[in-house]
Q: What sequence folds into this?
DNA sequence: AACCAGGACGTGA
DNA sequence: TCACGTCATGGT
């Protein structure tokens, strides 16, 4: 069932190339958001610690905001040479807030980022454990799993509000399903494959943006007729 | 112009 | 454990 959904999504939308990284025009950092700015079908990313760090910062910044806003914040940070641990640690909290203001919740996110940076630089080895990530204030289950999956190459499934919404609409979960329940549902039914895990989550987000863009589902989800239980 | 976005935390029951 | 308020900007 879930595998069939994955196949349908991949066939219809193609590889998403997550996690998006900041791209350049010449030497000038511009965007990540455009599809061409991703790296669809190339699963070799991230290539270095700087990219790993960038993904983690993006994971914190994207909490309850759109990627469009996150992208602007990331570009600001990149231009300040702060999208790597050393640069970030040198950046004052004031400058940090200024740079990420567009992504919202800048007071708390600036703390989260600073605290995460300390953990990142203190890590003896990659990948960190899930518990280590969760110990940082501001890193919850989804953010931790996103970091593990996209920054550190650990095949762990990411559950977000969109995923929950889709599965609920399809009747595959009930409203009281917890994060761990939904995560287990995927991990017990999908091959433990890094590429599939990365792609599946990204595809669910893309699908949800098309059909579940507000809290009361209005548009007809094409998955529901094919795979829905009701 | 109200509604909401790729959540997480602190609080009180 | 769990429900609920809070955090904040900017696009649609």
A:
């Amino acid at each position: 069932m879930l595998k069939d959904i994955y196949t349908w999504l991949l066939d219809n939308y193609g590889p998403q190339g997550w996690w998006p990284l900041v791209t350049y025009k010449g030497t000038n950092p511009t965007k990540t958001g455009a599809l061409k700015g991703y790296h669809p079908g190339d699963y070799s990313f991230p290539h270095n610690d700087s990219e790993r760090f960038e993904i983690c910062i993006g994971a914190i910044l994207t909490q309850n905001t759109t990627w469009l806003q996150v992208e602007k914040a990331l570009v600001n940070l990149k231009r300040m040479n702060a999208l790597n641990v050393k640069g970030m640690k040198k950046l004052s909290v004031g400058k940090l807030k200024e740079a990420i203001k567009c992504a919202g919740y800048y007071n708390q996110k600036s703390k989260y980022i600073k605290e995460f940076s300390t953990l990142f630089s203190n890590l003896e080895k990659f990948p960190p454990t899930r518990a280590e990530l969760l110990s940082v204030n501001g890193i919850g289950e989804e953010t931790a799993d996103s970091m593990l999956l996209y920054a550190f190459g650990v095949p762990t499934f990411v559950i977000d509000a969109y995923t929950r919404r889709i599965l609920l609409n399809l009747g595959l979960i009930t409203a009281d399903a917890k994060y761990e329940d939904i995560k287990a549902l995927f991990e017990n039914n999908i091959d433990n494959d890094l590429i599939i895990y990365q792609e599946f989550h990204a595809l669910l987000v893309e699908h949800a943006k098309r059909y579940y863009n507000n809290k009361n589902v209005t548009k007809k989800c094409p998955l529901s007729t094919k795979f829905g239980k009701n």
